[in-house]
Amino acid sequence: AAAAAAPSAAATLVASARRDARRTRRERLPWARCLADLLDGGAAAAGGDEAAAHACFAAAAAAADGADLALHAAVARRRQGELLGGDAGAALVAGSDAWMATQRVRQPGRWTAMLAPGSPPAAWRPRPSTAQRAVVDRRAIGRSPEPR
After folding, report:
1. What is the DSSP letter of 129?
2. Are 82 and 93 a contacting pair, CB within 8 Å?
């Protein structure tokens, strides 16, 4: 939400997320560390600080693993992959999506947006592969039915 808001509103939302992260971190519990790192990562991504966002999402994944929060770990790794881009980033996103599929998550991107808001700027997002673009193009012109 912060990334899509007007600049002054975005700055206010990012500051609010950072305050929430500090308050959550004070709980000093493994799950709180994970959630705080996800908030900090989203705030950093929305603010354009790729290095800080990547570090926060890596810390969130480790904290989530330690707290036995597998979904949150997958979400954090998915965000890392989005930031990283390229083949390595695509592999992180695909691995997270595959794990979420085993848990019957149908739209990993939406779960990621819910649990780790503050998506990276569009320039950081991985570009779809040629095969993915072809599927979208066929759907757009009505040659392929929507998946069920």
Report:
1. P
2. yes
